[in-house]
Design brief:
The protein is of the alpha+beta class and 98 residues long. It is 46% helix and 12% strand. The strands form 2 sheets. The protein has a two-stranded antiparallel ribbon. Strands 3-4 form a two-stranded antiparallel sheet.
């Protein structure tokens, strides 16, 4: 069962203490994982971008948490979702000439 927020939206990650837990079974993670010819999963630039966005979101939320309310966290999540969707739409440009 996927981790969800209070509204039932699947979470890509959560922060517990100083650790960000990224959920590998989330669809956004799975679409970025590539398997090698030998069958093991490999890190690629899209996955690095994804992880960087998730980690950054949690640490920025923590930094502003003392003055923030839940709406700031939701705004951050929505921002990350928007960036990840845009990345998905732009991936067809990968390798094309500028």
């Amino acid at each position: 069962m996927p981790h969800t927020d209070l509204n039932g939206i699947q979470l890509r990650s959560v922060m517990s203490g100083n650790t960000v837990h990224i959920f590998r079974k989330h669809e956004d993670f799975q679409t970025r994982v590539k398997s090698s010819p030998k069958g093991h999963e490999e890190v690629n630039q899209r996955l690095i971008n994804y992880i960087a966005m998730e980690v950054s979101m949690h640490y920025l939320n923590r930094k502003t948490n003392h003055i923030a309310d839940d709406s700031n966290e939701n705004r951050s999540r929505n921002f990350v979702t928007t960036v990840l969707r845009l990345e998905e739409k732009l991936k067809s440009l990968d390798g094309t000439k500028i």
